[in-house]
């Protein structure tokens, strides 16, 4: 399946619109909107499923049943929660920066959606195949920092403000080792194209060539999506709900959904950079590429959830110290070792 399926669908849609007499400019706009809607629907459905999955994983770890009332095996529990949140009143506290306060929960879901515009779901299944796909994903993912800060600052609440400050400190501190951990893979492949990086792993997945980089990326990724043990942003015993404290109804729900969307982006990039993307293990190519991609992604997400219900929250000083004193030096050392290894291999003619 070498040809991009989205390119084929877009070409068919353009042909149909041209036959219907639609002008080229309007045709391109319609194609873009259709692609955008496809990404939004796909990500939203996955996020709804992840909420249910986390409840079931938590229940299994805690030796209980979990959601089991709404729908078969509780499958419609998340849908019922969404309906409940939609029915709740949106309360706007006094003396808030109203425009920023209302814009933050709407914008917070934008970076994950933008990232998924270039993430392939299988071979030839990228909505947009950029030759700088890795750089693009890292760039748009960093936008989340300012959006969380907008919500914390605009709420006119000391707990929200402290939570917003923690977001900025935590994300900036751990985004650096996360980016540095990917440089080893980029050095080995010599490209920022997601498709080319996956194809470069047909012989060996990069988790075996870059095990330290994989570990650094995973730890930094846990912090980037505010998951335990790095969930100091919303430490209930300290700052209630952090930057989300003054939000209710769907405003609060959008922040939670954005967390799951970001977790999915981190897991997708981990699969692409270290786990061979959509490539089948053991040569089992009789199953479609998208099946293997999602098996790997959901395996990573399960580990995220497992860690959340296993480890306690760490202190702020431990969080910052671990990021700057451990992860950053290790990621720089990994880049150095990778460079030396590449030089030696080329010197001996490998």
User: What's the count of strands?
Assistant: 0
Domains, number: 1
What fraction strand? under 5%
Structural class by helix and strand composition: mainly alpha
What fraction, in percent, of the residue positions are helical? 55-70%
Biggest sheet statistics = none
H/I helix tally: 15
- Shape assignment: globular
Please write out the topology.
Blueprint: H1 5-19, H2 24-61, H3 77-87, H4 98-107, H5 110-115, H6 133-141, H7 143-154, H8 158-189, H9 194-199, H10 206-209, H11 211-224, H12 236-239, H13 249-274, H14 289-308, H15 316-347
Structural account:
Its EC number is 7.1.1.-. It is a multi-pass membrane protein. The chain has 350 residues and is an all-alpha fold. The protein has one domain (5-347). Helix content is 68%, strand content 0%. The chain contains 15 helices and no strands. The chain has helices at residues 5-19, 24-61, 77-87, 98-107, 110-115, 133-141, 143-154, 158-189, 194-199, 206-209, 211-224, 236-239, 249-274, 289-308, 316-347. The longest helix has 38 residues, at 24-61.
Provide a concise account of the structure shown:
GO terms for molecular function: NADH dehydrogenase activity; oxidoreductase activity, acting on NAD(P)H, quinone or similar compound as acceptor; quinone binding. This protein is mainly α.
């Amino acid at each position: 399946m070498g040809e991009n399926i989205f390119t084929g669908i877009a070409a068919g849609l353009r042909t149909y619109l041209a036959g219907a007499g639609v002008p080229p400019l309007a045709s391109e706009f319609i194609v873009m909107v259709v692609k955008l809607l496809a990404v939004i629907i796909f990500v939203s459905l996955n996020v709804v499923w992840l909420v249910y999955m986390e409840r079931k994983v938590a229940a299994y770890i805690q030796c209980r049943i979990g959601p089991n009332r709404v729908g078969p095996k509780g499958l419609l529990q998340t849908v019922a929660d969404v309906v409940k949140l939609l029915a709740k009143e949106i309360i706007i506290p006094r003396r808030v920066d109203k425009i920023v306060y209302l814009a933050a929960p709407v914008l917070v879901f934008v970076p994950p959606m933008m990232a998924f515009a270039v993430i392939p779901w299988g071979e030839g299944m990228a909505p947009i195949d950029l030759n700088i796909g890795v750089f693009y994903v890292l760039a748009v993912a960093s936008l989340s920092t300012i959006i969380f800060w907008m919500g914390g600052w605009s709420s006119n609440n000391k707990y929200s403000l402290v939570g917003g400050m923690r977001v900025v400190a935590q994300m900036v501190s751990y985004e650096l080792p996360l980016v540095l951990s990917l440089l080893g893979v980029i050095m080995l492949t010599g490209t920022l194209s997601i498709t080319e990086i996956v194809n470069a792993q047909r012989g060996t997945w990069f988790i075996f060539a870059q095990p330290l980089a994989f570990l650094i990326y995973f730890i930094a990724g846990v912090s980037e999506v505010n998951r335990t043990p790095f969930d100091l942003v919303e430490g209930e015993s300290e700052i209630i709900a952090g930057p989300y404290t003054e939000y209710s109804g769907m405003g609060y729900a959008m922040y939670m959904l954005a967390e799951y969307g970001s977790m999915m982006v981190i897991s997708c990039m981990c699969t692409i950079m270290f786990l061979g993307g959509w490539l089948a293990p053991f040569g089992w190519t009789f199953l479609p590429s998208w099946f293997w991609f999602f098996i790997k992604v959901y395996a990573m997400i399960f580990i995220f959830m497992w860690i959340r219900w296993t480890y306690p929250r760490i202190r702020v000083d431990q969080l910052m110290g671990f990021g700057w004193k451990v992860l950053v030096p290790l990621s720089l050392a990994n880049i150095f070792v990778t460079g030396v290894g590449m030089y030696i291999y080329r010197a001996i003619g490998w």
